[in-house]
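Hi everyone, sorry if this is the wrong subforum. Our group has a chain we'd like a structural model of before ordering constructs, and none of us has done structure prediction before. Sequence below.
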Amino acid sequence: MGPSTAGDHRASPYQSDGKYESGFYASRSKLIEDAAEYGGRAMYWTVNQVDGSLADRVTNEIAPAQKGACTHSKHIARIINIVFDCDAVRPIGWPATDEEHAATLEVAYKIRAYLAALGFPEPAVFDSGNGTYLIYKTDLSPELKPLVRAFVEYVSKQFSNEKVFVDNSVWKLPQLLRIPGTWNRKKQATAERPHRRRVDYQHPRETGACNGGHVVGGCAGAGGERNRGGDGDHRPDG
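Answer:
Right subforum, don't worry. Here is the predicted structure as tokens:
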């Protein structure tokens, strides 16, 4: 059922009240069916493994979110994905242009090459709609969240530049990512700034997972190396 057990999947309606909808699924086929039905809206899922304490919330449907009913850090049993979200620096709220969008893939490939040289396995590469995701499989205790945070922040500092911001906040245990095939819609699309679906670029040719040693090695140069992508803290609207 994707990355989670009894996973939290959320739909973000573009309505004036700004309310969210949420659902816990144990059926992959029903999730795929509902994602297709809600495909015109932003949809997200929890990237890490949810513990069994949320099993009683499984309804296999999307419904109005109840306060406090979504996944929290205490519900994460294992860290099973490390994510790098390369996002286009652009006017707040607007979709990326094709040029801005392409720049994120270039930075993602630089990160992938850097980590491959350190012995990391291949990641999955996804188009987020306005940028590029790299997703590395792992299997770590939630107690190692500080290490994952340091790693993500280090890579962000090294590779962000004036065109692309590598999000330094996607280390959170209940982190959400867009569900493949659903739309990333920001404000009104234009010919230059179109809405796009989140789609797959590449899946790893070989199955492999990074471990704590990889993560330590990935940020071992913190404080010593120059920024590889540019300078400054460049934050787009995600």
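For your construct planning: The chain has four helices and 13 strands. Residues 1-6, 12-16, 222-227, 229-238 have pLDDT under 50 and may be disordered.
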